[in-house]
Amino acid sequence: MKTFKQDYTKNFAVLYFLHYLTTSLIISQRMTFLIRTSYTIQQRSLIFAAVPLVSIGLQVLVGYLSDKYKTIKKLYVVVLAFSAIFAYLFYSVQVQLFFFHFAITLLSNSLIFSMEDLSDVWVLESEGPSKNNYSFIRAFGSAGWAFGSFLLAQIVAAFGYQGLAVTSLLFNVLILAIILTIRDDKAHIHVDEIKPKIKFVDIKEIFKSNTYLIAILIMFFIRFADSICGYILIDKMLALGGSEWHIGMRYSIAAGVEIPLLLIGDRIHRQLGSVKMIIIANVAYTLKFFGYYLADTNNMIFIVTLLQAVALPFFIVAIKYMLLELSPSHLKSTGQIVGPSIVNGLQGVLHPLVTALLASLFTLNAPLLLATLFGVIALLLSFPLISKYNHFKNNPTAQAIV
To answer: Where are the domains of the chain?
Structure first.
């Protein structure tokens, strides 16, 4: 077997910067666009609740195809092409056409999520130094998101949503140029090997690990809570007298404060390990959710957002390395994608509906209180994770069921 040791860390860093910059342009303004186009909260909730129905299937399929055909790059190009087209179409139609925006949002968001998964898998399954520098590379993604969140307000103010559509398309072209410079190690590593036949039913092997299931359950509650906050905070900030600038600034702050710890996240992970980092992240997330509940000004929301500095870096680095470790050797891509895709799918269906229901029955703060409760549940689940993960590490022959 040939081993390739090329260092594509710089290439991946540029890729992440451009990908997250472009994603922030598309995702961050999508809700505001629908609000400004006079869609009701019920219509918006229905649109975003439907996204995961396609997203789950697409992400699982992408992971399965990556393992089956031993490639990441080819899939990335296809997903990128369709993602760019749908994002452009979404912002180009600036009148209320419910079924059009429903379908385009469903496809565009699902493709963006799949592309994000493929980026992570590409880094973590590379053969050179890049796979040990995931956190460092991911920091450039946060930098891209922060810059994109700042940039989108300027673009919308100067050129409107059509300008945003054109800009996102141009950045997607740059992404294509960058990925062409990165080697598909997954394909080249197996070029001289007999590829094992992987069937779709093999995916069930991933869920035989109780440790994997607990990790995914923790991810579910954290992602659910964070999505509730992200969804309702737009309405809360507008109700507090905010504008697109305030919304974009919160995204920019969140992404910007993540960067310092992400830059050294790999070193922290080697010192603390995945479990301790997840517990610390859960505490930070729960405090953030409760802080949003208490906040009564947009400036206070900005201050609470600073907790993202610890919450996201610790959680995302720890969970990524843990899922890679827990996934079967022949299903590494699938294992890293299938669990998170189900999590994102389920909470993606539920959080818009639950948020809209609680906001209509009570106040805009009600969903934020539920998010805090979910944070506490995730923290409590950390205790069985400690036991199961330690058993997993100490019993390599029984890893399938631990």
So the answer is: 9-398
- Rounded average pLDDT over 146-166: 87
Q: What would the mean pLDDT of 142-150 be, rounded to a whole number?
A: 84
Q: Which CATH number fits domain 9-398: 1.10.4160.10, 1.20.1250.20, 1.10.10.10, 3.30.360.10?
A: 1.20.1250.20
Residues constituting the chain: 402
Contact (Cβ atoms closer than 8 angstroms) between residue 282 and residue 225 = no
206-216 average pLDDT score: 91
pLDDT band of residue 189 (cuts 50, 70, 90) is: low
Residue type, 215: A
DSSP string, 81-109: HHHHHHHHHHHH--S--HHHHHHHHHHHH
Q: Angle between the 9-27 and 98-124 helix axes, to the nearest 10 degrees?
A: 160
Q: Integer distance in angstroms from the first to the last C-alpha of the chain?
A: 31
The residue type at 165? A
- Alpha-carbon span 248 to 240, nearest angstrom: 15
Are 62 and 114 spatial neighbours (Cβ–Cβ below 8 Å)?
Answer: yes
Mean pLDDT is lowest, of 131-145, 238-252, 292-306, 368-382, for: 238-252
**Cβ contact 152:250 at 8 Å:** no
Distance of CA 127 to the CA centre of its chain: 23
pLDDT at 244 over 80: no
Instruction: Give the number of other Cβ atoms within 10 Å of residue 160's Cβ.
Output: 12
Alpha helices in 37-184, H assignment, sequence order: 41-69, 73-92, 98-124, 134-179
Residues 6+ positions from 244 with CB-CB distance below 8 Å: 29, 32, 153, 156, 157
pLDDT tens for 107-116 read: 898 899 889 9
- Cα(271)–Cα(267) distance, integer angstroms: 6
Q: How far is CA 342 from CA 201, 215, 225, 275, in A?
A: 16, 13, 15, 21
Nearest by Cα to 360 from 235, 229, 221: 235
Residue 45's Cβ-side half-sphere holds a number of Cα atoms within 13 Å equal to 17
Closest to 219 in 3D by CA, of 338, 72, 388: 338
Range 162-172 average pLDDT: 94
